[in-house]
Structure formats: C-alpha cells, structure tokens
Records
---
Amino acid sequence: MSAKENHFAGESARRYDTSHAGMFTPEEVDPVVGLLTELAGEGRALELGVGTGRIALPLSAAGVPVHGIDLSEDMVAELRTKPGAEQIGATVGDFATTRVEGAYSVAFLVFNTINNLTTQDEQVACFRNAAEHLEPGGRFVVEVGVPPVRRLGELDDTVLFSTGPTHWGYDVLDTATQSMVSHHITVEGEHGRYRAIPFRYVWPSELDLMAQLAGLALEHRWADWHRAPFTSRSTAHVSVWRKPA
C-alpha cells in the first residue's frame, strides 16, 4: 500500500455507508450507473477510489465487469461483506499510480474523489494512470464539484456546506494553494465526533489540461448525471474525456 495518509480507515470505513446514506439511494445511484453502463458498452470498467462499492456493485449487477482500486484496505473490506462483491476485482493501492492488468473501455472517479489527491502532481499522475488503463476509444469520467470560491466573502476562507440536527460541515479554503480542509462535526446521542479531511480543489479547465497531458480529449461536460447543461452557475460537473481510437 502507498505510504500516503489514509483518511478512510477503521471507524471511518465502518461508518462510511451510514454517514453518506443519502448518496446510496436509487435517485443518486441509478443515473450514474446508467451513464457508465452506456459508456462501457461491451467492455470493462475501472473505478478509481472504489470505496465500499456504492457504484461498483450496481454497475456490476447491470452486467459490466468492474475492477476497483482503493487506498483503504478497510473500505475494500467493507465492500467484500456485500452481496455481489465476489464479482468485483479490487486492488489496494494509490489509484493515482497503481496499475492493474487489462484494458478498460471506461475508467471513472465519482463523488469528488479526484480531490482526495492533495497535490497537482498527484492529480496529473491520476489522469495518466487512467489513460494507460484505457483501450483506444475508451473514456475517463470524473464527477467533481466546482470550487466554491464564489461563496467566499472578501476576508473569509470558510464555506458552510451542511447544517442539521446531527451533522455540521464546513470547508476551509486556501485560494493560494487550492488546498481545502473539510471539517465534519457529527452528533450521536449525547456524544460528538469531529473529523477533518484534506483535499485539493481543481477547476474544470485545469482538469482539461491534465487530460491533454495524458493524451485525452474532452468529449462531454454536463452539470450532473442527468446530462443537464453545464453553465457558469453549475456547482458540479460530470466530465468525459476520450482516448483516441
């Protein structure tokens, strides 16, 4: 396993599905699986940051052979407890550099996982790694938020993104380095739990340049998995880059 710090180990891995329960609903999952199934065609899919299998399991159930890479051994262990997991190959390692056998018609990174790579060099390496796994004509798909700097005040560096009776979340951004730390405060009964996870936010145009360096060309950019148009007001995007045939 990479020496990179793992923020999804132990209790964080065991609680992952319940703490992100809203992302496991059919309304969230089905559009993702539908688009990836279409892009995979008769080929195979590679998920970078497979986690506990939120997308890999239903994608496999839809008939697409799936292999996943994840830094967290504990997240992969959670995946292995679920029905259908025996159909999914999984490799523990840094998805920016870890190579697995075979060629894939689609590789994908969802739910802001590209931001878990906290340097530009790592993100560039990830695009190269994805491109090397793709067969000619294959696609690399990334789902990620648009950096929320527009929501910052003139002297502020904090964006509140979640408020509720059991969870508060806020991001602290450094616009000089594009670094961001997500802070989570969770209330469970009479007890509270605090987590801080570092990220590096990245702009759509920057991702396009990373793709170009890896020999990929932008094919589509949508605001969501329903393929809504991407505009200057979009808060996230689903982008598809294609390897030359």
---
Amino acid sequence: MGEAKSASVVGTFGRVLECWDRQNRDYVAIKVVRSICRYRDAAMVEVDVLEHLAKNDKDASHFVQIRNWFDYHNHICIVFERLGPSLFDFPKGNKYCPFPVDLVREFGRQLLESVAYMHDSRLIHTDLKPENILLVSSEYVKLPDRKRSFSDETHFRCLPKSSAIKLIDFGSTAFYNQNHSSIVSTRHYRAPEIILGHWESYALFSLSKIGTSSHSGEALFQNHENLEHLVMMERVFGPLPEHMIRRANRGAEKYFRRGSRLNWPEGAVSRESIRAVKKLGRLKV
C-alpha cells in the first residue's frame, strides 16, 4: 500500500506510523496493533465502531476517518486519515502554555457534539482525555506572549491555526446494552460515578476536566488511587452528592465511614498523598 515514514507513536497497544499511500498519493496514519488477543479484539471493536459512525455521520466532522484495515502477520493494521497533534502533545511542545479560554470553549463545543452524537448512536467512548483528541491540522501561528515577556526579551507562544478537532481511539467503546467494565477511562479523567461502581453522565465530568486541563496547562487531579481521587474531588468541588454515595457498590463502600464521610486521612496510603490533597483549593465560581 505504501511506505512508512520515520515518525511514529508507540503505545501499549502497539504503534502508529505515518505512511505515504502510493496509490492515493496522500499521507495516512496506520495503527499497528500488537499480536495479543485482547488488543486484536479491541482493534476490531474500533473498526466496527468507526465504520458505523462513518456510515451515519455524513460529514465525518466528529471522528477520525477510517480508510481501510488489514491483518498482517497477526497484527491488525488500521489505516486512518492523518491528523495533527493531540491536545496533550501540542501544549507539551509549546512549553506547556495553556490554550486561550475562547479556544477551549470551541474545543468543548465540538466535544459535546461528538459525545451527544455517540450517545444518540447508543455508544460510549469510555476513554475521553486530551491524548485522544487530535487537532485536524498541524499548522500553527507564533504570537508574542506578553505574560511571559520580561525586559527587552520577547517570548512567543504557538496557537493552532484551526480549532477543528476529532476524537480517536475507539477500541474500548462500549454499547449501552452491554455489560460495562467496572473500571473505564484514564485515572486523571475518571468520573466519581466510575469509582463508585455505577454509570451516569460521567462523560460530562471527563469533558469538564479536559477543558480545565487545556486552559490551565496541567491535569486537575494528579492522583494514584481511588480514595485520594475522591477526596481531591471533594476538596475542589465540595461534598459528593448523597444519591451518588447511596448507589455506590460494595467494592466502593471501603472508601467511606460514618455514612457519607470519606475515610480520610485515615485511609491515605502515604503522607505524600495527604500533602497532595492539602495543596488543592476549592473551585471558585
């Protein structure tokens, strides 16, 4: 089909290669999945979901486009359109300068449309995070950064030329009518509903954290285990709703004592964890 370029992204599942399609004379991205049963199964889920979305989303504006797929020596290879950097990688290459609030608002609008469209299709992404949201274009503009300019030295910041984004990585997508894994989504963007063992509109929580991290330049909750994560949420947002606590499954009961009170700091795994929680302040609205 084509030839691989040197650019690639390595992940747990395998790697993504930037390739030149000699037949269509265009660059593509090929996701080469490791020859492990669970990764192959996830890859086929991703193919099914993307083909379903492409068939129903006529303008293909919300999600990465799948061009083709094939099995090469037991590796599932999925051919995608080539997109730009993720909302994680772009700030990383820009000295972690946060995105302006107007741009974050535009990202949020597109993500809400994407999630709403998936929910209308009875699909749940389950792993919404900046790494899985790609800018459509790699082009950017360089502007003076007055906040970081001192004396006569001028500092610059990069901003995307286009605000268009697309969702990627549908290998863990779940259908509404199937049994869900008890733990989904990457920890830093995991909603309290998931930790407590029940599913509601947790995608909205993940999107709010993505927006916060895009505007601040850092992840809101840098945590390492579930109790610490819940305490951090209470520290920033206030107490967890009673109805949410009442619906917690048996596995989550250990996080509480005396009804709705979290078992903190007694349940902390380390002093570092306690100090990390104390650094957080209440969200100002």
---
Amino acid sequence: MRKIILFIHSSINGVVTGDPSEDKTNWTVWRNNAGIEEGSRYLLNIFKTADTILLGRGTYEDLSRKWPNTRGSSLGDQINNAHKLVVTSVRPLDQLKWGEFEAPKQLTGNNIEEQIKDLKNGDGGDIVIFGSPTLVRSLANANLIDEYQIVMHPVVVNAGEHLFDNLHEQKEFHLVDVKPLQVGSLLVTYRPATA
C-alpha cells in the first residue's frame, strides 16, 4: 500500500501559512532561510520512495508559478518530474499546467476521500503532501495521512493558519524520530497511533 506523507514547515505554535491578510501562501516570512535549505534536504529524501505529489488548489496555484522555473537543483528536478494530483473538490479548474512538465491531474467531486483511498491502494510510490493545510486537515480528519514530517522553526507568530485547526476529534500520534537541524529547528516525524 502506498503511504501518504506530509512534509510541512511550522512555527512552534503550529502556524503553517503566511498572514491571510497579505499572502497566505508565503509562510517564508517567519522562517529561517538556513532551516528551509536544511529541511529541503529531508524533503528530497522522501522522494526516494515517493513519486506523486498531492496538492490542494491554493498550494497548486502558488507552486505551479514557482517550481517549473527551478532548474538544476535535485529537489526541483524531483518535484517537477513527479506525478501531481490537485484536489479541487467541487470546483474543477479549466486547465492545469506545470510549465513544460507533465500537467497535474485533478481529483474533483464529492468523493475525494474515496478517490484518495483508491490511490493509496493502487500502484506506484508513496504520495507526498507539502503545504496545502486545508487539504491536510481534511485528510487528517479522514485518517488518511500515514506520516507527518514537520520542520518546527524556533519562532512564534501571531498571524496565519494553524495546521490542526478544525479537527473533528482528538488525534493520537507515535513519535518516530526527531532530528535537530543546525539552525535550531527540529524535524519531527510522527505516525498516527492507530497505524
């Protein structure tokens, strides 16, 4: 069975986005540059088993403008050449593009959870989500995420969305690993206690 792995940057108080009154997708306003670079090396490690990226609509719209222009980096090559799926729920997009690379496919309709379960039971490598906090909350509520890799930066911010806002019930996790990063950030890996 394919695993769904979340990789996301977070403040100590769980904020994973930028200020919604400005550019919500720009979480980099509160992060440490060196922590992002070091964290990116760990994201690259996920692609040893993952061949598909799952994105929410807002994250797709942001990343599809940036990543196709990234050339010559191992992470950029992995992201650009991976299969991409964009969850658009009931409002499909007219056309999906990813620069000159393979266009993403849409998951749309009222049965997204079932479609994602089918993906997990299908052929292929693991599936990685990075960013997409709205999608993450939905998949966490449906118990579909198998591993949470969170880079926690040594900062507390007062604006932005929290990763686990609006969960339907308490979630228990097992700590799998903690890696201290050189800049004071931590890469914390959890798996659901029910897994």
